[in-house]
Design a protein that fits this description.
Helix content: 10-25%
Radius of gyration: 22 Å
Shape: globular
Number of domains: 1
Number of helices: 4
Distance between the termini: 69 Å
Number of strands: 6
Structural class: alpha+beta
Strand order of the largest sheet: 2-3-1-4-6-5
Order of helices and strands: HEHEEHEHEE
Largest sheet: 6 strands, antiparallel
Length: 205
């Protein structure tokens, strides 16, 4: 091996050694909580839900996407003691936003009412914590127990909830067909800002 070849080889090794951080490495972002309320209607042709079960499923999905553990989901307008295809959903949520982008979205009185409903005494907007953008494949999350019949529920979240929470759908394969339950679990990949560790217990005390 010539001296020139050896020199070029060593130069390449040195350059590679300096590449300690890959270009796609996840960036930690100083973040804070954004508290807001979202209301929308679930209107379906195919799947009827027990309203408490629907509320629980929606809350579980939002928490997997980084929402505060105290996020609450309630339903109203349901048929008494039987599943319904048409009901109202109210979400009281706290979700991460970059601290540099945080802006007030509700009045002080409304915020206090929302915090009370969330069971949180402290003003979350004063808390800062590390978070990172993460792509979550909801269909592959076994804890959520999503079924083919959840297609219309996922469609409603995609269109009416996730954009308002600053979450972006990066891949979807829903294809809901009225009056027909498919054979595949509805696929939805979502990019969301997620805390890098569990929220401090003092935020809920």
């Amino acid at each position: 091996m010539s001296k020139r070849t050896r020199w070029l080889g060593l130069g390449l090794v040195g350059a590679l050694a300096q590449m300690t951080v890959p270009a796609h490495a996840e960036e930690t972002i100083p973040s804070t909580w954004k508290v807001q309320e979202i209301k929308y209607s679930y209107v379906a042709f195919t799947t009827a839900y027990d309203c408490d079960a629907a509320a629980q499923k929606i809350a579980s999905i939002l928490k997997e996407l980084g929402a505060h553990p105290n996020t609450k989901v309630s339903t109203s307008g349901c048929n008494f003691n039987r599943p319904s295809r048409n009901f109202f959903v109210t979400i009281a949520a706290a979700t991460p936003v970059p601290a540099s982008d945080a802006t007030p979205t509700v009045t002080d009185q409304s915020k206090q009412e929302l915090l009370k409903r969330l069971g949180i005494k402290n003003d979350l907007s004063s808390d800062q914590f590390p978070a990172e953008w993460k792509t979550v494949d909801l269909a592959k999350n076994r804890r959520l127990d999503l079924r083919p019949g959840d297609c219309e529920l996922m469609e409603g979240l995609r269109d009416k909830v996730l954009p308002r929470l600053g979450m972006k759908v990066t891949e979807r394969s829903l294809g809901c067909t009225p009056h027909t339950v498919g054979i595949a679990t509805p696929a939805l990949k979502v990019s969301a800002l997620v805390p890098t560790k569990s929220p401090d217990a003092k935020s809920t005390g």
